[in-house]
Structures are given as structure tokens and as C-alpha cells.
Amino acid sequence: MPLSPMTEPMAAPPADAAPEPTLRVDGLKVGFGGSQTRLIAVEDISLHISPGRTLALVGESGSGKSVTSLAVIRLLAARGRIVSGRIALRDKAGAVRDLVELDEPALEAVRGNDLGMIFQEPMTSLNPVLTVGEQIAEPIRIHMGLSRRAAMQRAIEMLDRVGIPGAAERARQYPHEFSGGMRQRVTIAIALACDPVLLLADEPTTALDVTVQMQILNLLRSLQQQQGMAMLFVTHNFGVVAEIAHDVSVMYAGQIVEHGTVRQVLKTPRHPYTRGLLACVPQLGTASEHKKQATPLFSIPGMVPSLRDMPRGCRFAARCVHAEARCREATPALETTDTGNIARCIRWNEI
Amino acid sequence: MSEQTDFLSVRGLTKHYVQRGIGRRQTVHALDDVSFTVARGETVGLVGESGSGKTTIGRAILRLIEPTAGQVLLDGTDVTALSPRALRRFRKRMQYVFQDPYASLSPRMTIGEILTEGLVLQGVRGREKRRQMALDALASVDLPADALDRYAFEFSGGQRQRIGIARALVLEPELIVADEPVSALDVSVQAQTINLLRSLQQRNNLTMLFISHDLGVVEYVCDRIIVLFLGRIMEIASSETLLKAPRHPYTRALISAVPGLDPDADRSGQQVLQGDIPNPANPPSGCVFRTRCPHAIDRCAAEVPPLEEVEPGHFKACIRDV
């Protein structure tokens, strides 16, 4: 996929970008707190996702990946505010709208309709006193204007499509009658009920056991092939990224520090943070070698800087073995590297 | 497996919970007839998905919960037969590290108080001596001495987990049960903590039971791995053998389900288990894994497969040779 110029917000997409992106975020900046204590959670976030593609936003706690995805659906908590930036969504009708400009009623017409979302903990996103059929049918009635009966019929079809056996009977059951993996399938059915152009998935498999996680990832992949929606997938797990994503943006301390296709980022990472993170992951079948040679597992020293005390220059410099004085002078720009990755590191060529 | 070399011996450990609902009563089989041994200085991993019984085993060994049946022998002492008073004294020899570094440290106690509370309960006399022991424990987990007078909220998740480890170490126990000690941590911090646990293990000749759902982490930390499913042992082998030559279909499926870092990996041979983990209140007859097993035959439903030694030190509970 051609990489559009992420360093130049608002720039026109290159001529050879075949499909128009479903989502295009330019220069997003999100702050929390009143004007006195304004903390900038994420800044300079630019990304785009084309139909049928999955972009993974990956990072550790506090990197800003969830804030970014919540900003896209305009679900930031009361004190969170989009300070600047543009979130352009190409809706089902093909019209491009800036979600930042929309008011709440207009947003409600978009959420659950053009924009589906699933979250980490399926139990907390389901209503315990409504049957799952009613919960899937609700957005169908509201957004697609179907009758109660027709909406329920489509809800049952959705349950079947997400791999729940005996869909017609299961539609009459309540969330507590479902296992964790089955509940996540239900939330996926709700999110996809109105055939959205974009699915936001925030750590959707993190609370699940690995064998169930694999089922859900396979399901999301096959549903994407059937429905062709774009997907923004937030996760901390590089293994999941390798499994589901086409493109990856790695976040650190509120900024994107590296971007590329999944192959570029996982196989030829150029930012020292991405390299470090990948080396930290204990990979199955490699430990015995490590133990024989008594080498420790790679770890990144120190910890993520606080929002209140963000260092000047490169935010990773304090933990980076390659940092020099000039790294601390100015925020590095995103640069295109030899492998086509985009990295926020002034030394990518030297290390 | 002789009596002398087994430092920890778990025999037929069983835990059932009775659930009372309106007009019904059901028994949840959290753990059924689990037996294994651990040598002194060995680190053994307990791996499994939710409901596999891994935490129940850890807690039952320390008698943080009372087992329904079975015995736990630590260095020849039957822990399950100890009186409450004797148990309290005995706990000095076995300590627990909890998963959640936020919930497991009191917000109202200084780190010094947290670390010395166990020493006071175990009758270690002398305030100065206790303080010194706490300082030593802090140093062993690479935390500065000034941490002693601070509170838990002043530390990051990774540092808190090291405080939790220091609290377990301060009593100089012989056995540590570490229950998902790195699961709540980010990967970069997780790697630091794994390295710390490995070095502590070697330095202090600790015996450790390491509970985790993450096979990659377990492989790094443990000498041997016990794979559990729905309250029963499926397979036991050395870490290397278990990862390279697993014999039980569940172990194979579990390994296959861990997403690797290679986006080009061939997924054609991947086994995706169908269905969910069965309800422990109504476990399948015979082999508890048979309802999800691609190799199940009629006989699997008839009998509980015994845990048999297939090679020296390698055990599996499966009647099929697949």
C-alpha cells in the first residue's frame, strides 16, 4: 500500500492511492483537564485506513492508543477535548465528513451505523437486562429503519454470521448465559449489524483465553473479507498485530513513532522503541537457547514519561541506548526510511 | 520420584465448590485429583486457560483455601494437616506473589510496614533487625532504600510488583508461589521482571511455582511445565520438551493458538479449537478436553485418562497416541 505523506497533515492523497481511504486522521491533538491543567494526551496523529484494510495501533499503557481511537468515535470522557486536527470519515453513501465538526445528534447517526465499535470487556459493553437479540436489533431498527420483526430477523442472521450455533434460540437469551468468547461474538454482531464502513476494535481479545482469541481473530478476518469494512485495531500485543493487521502504527508517549506495513514494522523495525518492544516479547520456543547461554531477556530500561513532565525532543531518548544530545533538542519528525517504514527518529540511518 | 528428592509433593489435590441457586445445587469442580512433585530449587510452571485450576492449586498449597481432598507435603511436612497455629508458623517457609500489583499492596501502609508486617507476625524480634531485613529484600529486587518510607501509590506497576516480590522474599521462604506476576505489566517492564525472577531463583536456590496463562513467559522462567485444563493435569514435561515435542492434543492446540511475530507465518497447519471451555459445574465425562479435541473417540468419554509417563519425566493424560 502506498504510504501517503503523513508528515504533511491535510496534504492531498497521492494520485496512485487506489481506493479513497475510509478514515483519514490529520494532525490530531487531544488534551485533558481544564485550561489551567491541560495535559496533552496525544498529538500529531495522522493515519488513514482504506476499505478492507486493518490498521493496528500498538503501544504500551499510556501511549495514547485508546485515546486516539476514542477521539475517532468522539467518545472521549467529559474532560477530554480534541484540541486540533481533522477526522475525515467516508460514510456509506461515499460522502466525506469531518467527525470533529459534527454535533451530538449527527454523531449518533454515525455511531453504530457507519462506525461500529467493540471493546475489551464484552460483559461491560452488553446490557444485562436485554436479550442479545434485542441488543443487536436496536441499531438495525434505529439506523436502517427496519420493523421490529425484520430487525430481529437480521439480528438472528448476524448471530449466525458471527458463529453462534442455534442463533434463533440464542437471540432470546441474556448476556450472562454466554461465555466470554460468545459475548465478544455478540458485540461483534452488534457492531457489524448495520454494515459499517469502519470497525473500531479496542483490545477486543485481551480479556479472552488464547484459544478463544484465535477464534475471534479468525472471525474478524473473515467478516472483513465478506463485508469489506476498514478496521482500526488497538492492541498492546504484537502477536495479535501479526495475525490481524495490514498496517501498523506504533505509539509511544502520545505520538506515533513508527508506521508501515505489518511486514515492514515487524521484520525491519527502524525506530529503537519498536525494536526494543519486539525484542522484549518472549517468543515461544526460543527460551531454551537463552537459558543455555544464560542471556537475559531483552528489556527496555526505565519507564514511560509522565504526561505532566514530557521531555523535550525525542520522548524515548531517556530510555534509548542510541540517544545523543541532539535527540533531546527538538521533536524528531516522521521520516521515511530505507525500508519504507516511517520512523520518528533522527538516527534511524545510523543505528 | 522418591520421597527424599521431592521437596514439594502434591497428591490427589481436589477442590470442589458447592453452588446453591434457587431450587438447585451444583458442584463446581475447580480441581480434580491433581498430583505432581517439585524438586528443591526447581521452578515449575502451571499453565492453562481460565478455569483450568492453576490459581486454585497455588492457593491450596499455601492453604489460602482449604482443599476438599488431597495432600500437600512440603519438605516432608503435611501442610494440609497442620493446625491453624502451626500453619501460621509454617507459612514463613512458603510465600505468595499476587497478580495485581495495585490491589495487593495496602495504600495506607508504607513500603517498610508492608515488608516488615510478615516479620512481626513471624516473631522476628528487634525493629532495627526487621528494617535491615526489609532493606535487604528491597535491594534484592533493585529498589532504592528510600522506598521504605514511601507509599505504594508513588510507584509504577513494575516497581509495585517488585515490592510484592520483596514482601515474599523478606521471610526467606523456601517455596514461592507466583500467581501471574507479570500479566498486569507492559511488555518492556514484564521483561525486566522476568529477568529479576530468574536471577533471584538462581541466587537464592528458590523453589518456585509459577502460574501463568502465557506460555512464552512460562518457557522463559520455568524448568518444567504442567499444562492444566478444567481442573486436571493434561501434560507434564521439561519446558524445552513441552514446547518442542508436546504429546497432548490440548498442549498442541494451546501452543498453536499463541500468535507469533511473523506476519508471513504459514497458518495452514494451525489448529483452531472449536467451542468454549466446558462448564466446570458440569464437566464432560471421561477426558475433560474431549468435547474440544479433534482426536476424541468414544472411549474418551468412558474413562478419565490416567497421567502416564510416555518418556522419562514426560507425562500425558491422553489415551490416544496422536
Automatic annotation (TrEMBL), chain B:
A GO cellular component entry from the record: plasma membrane
GO molecular function, one term: ATP hydrolysis activity
Membrane topology type: Peripheral membrane protein
Record has Transmembrane as a keyword: no
Protein name in the entry: Peptide ABC transporter ATP-binding protein
Pfam families associated with the record: ABC_tran (PF00005), oligo_HPY (PF08352)
UniProt entry keywords in alphabetical sequence: ATP-binding, Nucleotide-binding, Transport
Entry annotated with the keyword Membrane: no
